[in-house]
Amino acid sequence: MHRRRGPNFTYVSGCVKYMIFVLNFIFWLFGGLMIAIGLYAFIDKWQATGLIKLDTIYDVMLNISLLIALLGGVVFIVSFAGCVGALRENTCLLKFYSLCLLILFLVEMGGAVCGFVFPRSLHGLLELSFTERIVHAYRDDPDLQNFIDFAQSDFHCCGLTSDGYMDWSKNEYFNCSSPSVERCGVPFSCCINATDISSGLVNIMCGYGVQNSPVAEASKRVWTSGCIEIVRSWAERNLYMIASVALGVALSQLFVIYLAKTLEGQIELQKARWQT
Fold it and tell me: In 10 A of CB 3, how many CB atoms?
């Protein structure tokens, strides 16, 4: 015999409902924090430099503070839809939320497939185009400069492509035809020993004139390999770890999509019960 359903019976699972709510509330706060940090850095840079160039998509992608704010906005909107949709049992918001997660999942899978399928020559063309933009923007954008210096010093690399330290010949300050004292040089973050041990001070001139030296001689002063090759080698050495993390993220996204669709179905059943 079936259990008789009382007047207070509901198809909506409180566990599923509040699990989605709490999870999205955390991401909603995180998205708001990203917006605040990104906008603060963007306004601070605007006040310091007085000019921010946003003419092309590359300018937006290389503007780290604006990129953080935009990503935070996406996280804020999507998690808000999931949070309110679960709390108020709104199927429209839940459909929007699950659709956004599905699109994100497909984009991630598409990027992973393209990374394996696309030929290395096409990767080279993309790297070359992007490298020229990044190297050229160094010194024009303080946030980008700090990010490049951090990456080069931590990953022990110089430049981006397989040309390594010679990538900096594309920068107007380090180009050998430049009237600057930094001509034919590289940023101090490329130097193997940029910090003086005795004084603790950074020698910003340690990379001056290194472009005039062959690789064998330059390697005694600076890191000569490009950062993309270094990161790619690191990824190949830690392929199983990266694959495990990617699989965990993908399964987590699918699980949350499943929860959202489950709650959506339960709400529809409850509405149908009310109508009958």
Answer: 6
